[in-house]
From TrEMBL, chains A, B, C, D:
<keyword id="KW-0554">One-carbon metabolism</keyword>
<dbReference type="InterPro" id="IPR044074">
    <property type="entry name" value="PurU_ACT"/>
</dbReference>
<dbReference type="Pfam" id="PF01842">
    <property type="entry name" value="ACT"/>
</dbReference>
<dbReference type="GO" id="GO:0008864">
    <property type="term" value="F:formyltetrahydrofolate deformylase activity"/>
</dbReference>
<feature type="domain" description="ACT">
    <location>
        <begin position="6"/>
        <end position="89"/>
    </location>
</feature>
<comment type="pathway">
    <text>Purine metabolism; IMP biosynthesis via de novo pathway; formate from 10-formyl-5,6,7,8-tetrahydrofolate: step 1/1.</text>
</comment>
<keyword id="KW-0658">Purine biosynthesis</keyword>
<dbReference type="InterPro" id="IPR036477">
    <property type="entry name" value="Formyl_transf_N_sf"/>
</dbReference>
<dbReference type="InterPro" id="IPR041729">
    <property type="entry name" value="Formyl-FH4-Hydrolase_C"/>
</dbReference>
<keyword id="KW-0378">Hydrolase</keyword>
<dbReference type="InterPro" id="IPR002376">
    <property type="entry name" value="Formyl_transf_N"/>
</dbReference>
<comment type="similarity">
    <text>Belongs to the PurU family.</text>
</comment>
<dbReference type="Pfam" id="PF00551">
    <property type="entry name" value="Formyl_trans_N"/>
</dbReference>
<dbReference type="InterPro" id="IPR002912">
    <property type="entry name" value="ACT_dom"/>
</dbReference>
<comment type="function">
    <text>Catalyzes the hydrolysis of 10-formyltetrahydrofolate (formyl-FH4) to formate and tetrahydrofolate (FH4).</text>
</comment>
<dbReference type="InterPro" id="IPR045865">
    <property type="entry name" value="ACT-like_dom_sf"/>
</dbReference>
<feature type="active site">
    <location>
        <position position="228"/>
    </location>
</feature>
Amino acid sequence: MSHYYRLVVSCPDRRGIVARVSGFIAGHGGSITEANQHSDLEAGRFFMRYEILADSIGMTAAELEEAFEPVAREFDMDWALRDTRRRPRVVVMVSRESHCLVDLLYRWTAGELEGDIVGVISNHDDMRSMVEWHGLPYYHVAVPADYKSAAFGEVERLVEEMEADTVVLARYMQILPPRLCERYAGRVINIHHSFLPSFAGARPYHQAHSRGVKLIGATCHYVTEELDAGPIIEQDIHRVSHCHTPQDLVRFGRDVEKAVLARGLRWHLEDRVLIHGNKTVVFA
Amino acid sequence: MSHYYRLVVSCPDRRGIVARVSGFIAGHGGSITEANQHSDLEAGRFFMRYEILADSIGMTAAELEEAFEPVAREFDMDWALRDTRRRPRVVVMVSRESHCLVDLLYRWTAGELEGDIVGVISNHDDMRSMVEWHGLPYYHVAVPADYKSAAFGEVERLVEEMEADTVVLARYMQILPPRLCERYAGRVINIHHSFLPSFAGARPYHQAHSRGVKLIGATCHYVTEELDAGPIIEQDIHRVSHCHTPQDLVRFGRDVEKAVLARGLRWHLEDRVLIHGNKTVVFA
Amino acid sequence: MSHYYRLVVSCPDRRGIVARVSGFIAGHGGSITEANQHSDLEAGRFFMRYEILADSIGMTAAELEEAFEPVAREFDMDWALRDTRRRPRVVVMVSRESHCLVDLLYRWTAGELEGDIVGVISNHDDMRSMVEWHGLPYYHVAVPADYKSAAFGEVERLVEEMEADTVVLARYMQILPPRLCERYAGRVINIHHSFLPSFAGARPYHQAHSRGVKLIGATCHYVTEELDAGPIIEQDIHRVSHCHTPQDLVRFGRDVEKAVLARGLRWHLEDRVLIHGNKTVVFA
Amino acid sequence: MSHYYRLVVSCPDRRGIVARVSGFIAGHGGSITEANQHSDLEAGRFFMRYEILADSIGMTAAELEEAFEPVAREFDMDWALRDTRRRPRVVVMVSRESHCLVDLLYRWTAGELEGDIVGVISNHDDMRSMVEWHGLPYYHVAVPADYKSAAFGEVERLVEEMEADTVVLARYMQILPPRLCERYAGRVINIHHSFLPSFAGARPYHQAHSRGVKLIGATCHYVTEELDAGPIIEQDIHRVSHCHTPQDLVRFGRDVEKAVLARGLRWHLEDRVLIHGNKTVVFA
């Protein structure tokens, strides 16, 4: 099975970046199998993502990184190089709604995700059996109102212990403390059950029902300190009508939520999502 | 060409309404070609819309109305009966963006609307030639900031003179004064260029672009005194990405706006939209 | 928890059906909570579905059936009455692809289906552990090429033994013999992985890829003797582009397939699908 | 207003193409504002499209072409360079349905198309007044069954006289003779009113209605000698149900057709569509 070196770059826009980077890769005999570029003309910033067939380059990832360093410095790049054999480790956090977790577990076992779910943390014990059936550890960390700080200390310890690259809030229903938002900035993905910025906060389907909207939605975004306000990765909607009760909206919502979260996570794990300020570039 | 008597009812929900109404119609030999019903269990309210082949009943609309009156009283109904030969008269109000008007004029001439556009009012003179080419009167009523009251007096006079049943704000870009909102309650349809309640107010595409959303939308709603807050008739969205500038969003938006407005207006003219509080029942 | 009597009718169209049926129900004090009607003007046929609050009628389902019999005869109705406490029994048949089964099992456990999965039959043994974890029996019935007749005899025996009302071919990948198609006419639901009638038969995603289509689809339909030609219940599509390999199409397809099958099955179990010739009326 | 040099390339895939091309552009000081690349791994073919700010290069398009020639030869490229100041000339052909033409005329006047409609040819005289109101010449070329060859001779003469780069069959309803298909290969765009390959040929909405499909579609494709079988540029669908008559399908279809044709034509005019065999690469 071939593996790839994946180069992701964001830098001030100027002439010659593509020529320099592609020239560098060609100079090492590299074969580019997928290339994405974007110039944000307003922000004056350039984004790129290259997938290079590892066997076409006679270097390890570490050697390639070292060789690329001067190019990166020349163009003042934020950049990363990943060997796709190094699969990201994902911790999923859930509360009582299982639809997103069930969906992610299926996609993981079906080989749809370029990464591995390594454990599940929940403030309830409901999904233990299902998770353990998949051969994964399940951690029940209750989050009582007067004990949040200790609880999130334990969550942090578990995330570290599992060496998670990415944390997915798959309908976790608890607000992460600022400390975790900051420590794992750009690495925590949440699914919010509305079409943000509509209906931020609690009970979005009931808000939507009472406003009489004709579409409900879901939003996958990075978690930041400000609730439901982080960079949006993906959104989608489902059509509703006067026939539908709030319960129907919840049911439709589950389908949108899991689809949107799965796409967002997939793109994140494939290094297709580049954050810039409060927005994302998604090379889907 | 057959015509229909269209009966639209909203009343407190209780047993036997359908039996009473359908019995009444059957008793007069009426043939029902389309029937829609909805019980709003939360609100305890019942909604129905019947389309009756006029030739199957040996009565004029006025006679049928009179005959139905006791049934309506019995169930405390808000109701209306319309002979579809009496086509609603529509006045369109526009500002400088022509996409919605062009679309509505096409649909009218193609016979897609159960009603007739009878005139266009604008605060600019830009679309006169196009409108007049369609054989319609065009009224230019400027709305200078210090002259709004007189301007809207003139708008009101024109709407009355044209005997409009429905007024469509097809990107009119001016806020109707409370007096008109009230006088024409349930008869003025607006297209707002966002997925309400997101991005109410001015420049929604710029708001959407700066929030980095992945979908933009449009909302067709009845106009009420509170800006962009009236009962929603229809909504739809268009997918966008980091590639798209605010100008692209405007362009995509035009397509969504005209589609959403055309659907909303069509349903309104076919008596498919029943208002209840700040929501609608749409028998689409 | 309230239960309902659900009345589903199809009959030659003529005046007075609604009045007669709703009058009958009102006469027994019945409260109708959901009503759907459709006149197929081309075919001259009328379809209806009523949901009646059981507690509002002082009769058992059997008594109501007997009382309704004369009405049904008068209008030459095909009809059925179901007490929603009697939940339909569903047998799922699968081959090696698990996505549809995983999805149906989730929906069943989440209470989204108005029926119960009572067992799984497969020509492979791969999904035994997952199915048994859900507390359901799993039957492995191999279908070797020279042994099909006996294998399908065994399938038929199992379906009978489990007293299945509905059989779902959730990517079963085997063609049912005519005998079973006929015996279970209108009760076997298949998911085909293309937008029928495009790409009937084998390997639809490869057919789609090689034709260069920009959308792929899935179709949920009743099984008839003619392959992939039975009455269609539901269809949906997913957008694809030149970037996507046949493997990507397979992956997107899985999402469409499970969504379309779930909707189709849900509607079938709620008696929302009425078959007429090779078409369906779906009161969704 | 800035203009661009747009370089479109298709060639056998091998290492170093991007480096060579981007190096060439950087070497001439060129600033790339949009870049798209695609490797078709099955076909072993590489596709690219670069948009270069003309002012960033001190050369005319002709000089740049000459300078690029050796690079193109080295990599055996099919290629084209276009100065975006040279706007493509579009001839639209219609029959009796006006929706696509009305839509294209609006988009042209609104500045949505990177090209100019220069004239309309029709086998009927119905749309003359509307077309002439837009300031465009209208040619009525009747196509009687026993006179087709002479009629298409006249069509060809007009297309030449108007110096058309692109011919759009906007519901033209006549089959172009092989001679024209061949002469204008890759330059004639058709809108077919079904989701091809379903329902090729005549009266697709009636075919769709009688098959009982739940979605209808439209397909924008290049015209080849084989009817409705050319490379597909774009497709989309509209949801339908048992409620809808063939007339409703026709009405919904109009909306899909014009949207799909407008997208397809827009991409074609922006050099975003690269044909390869019977498929397209669309850098949308």
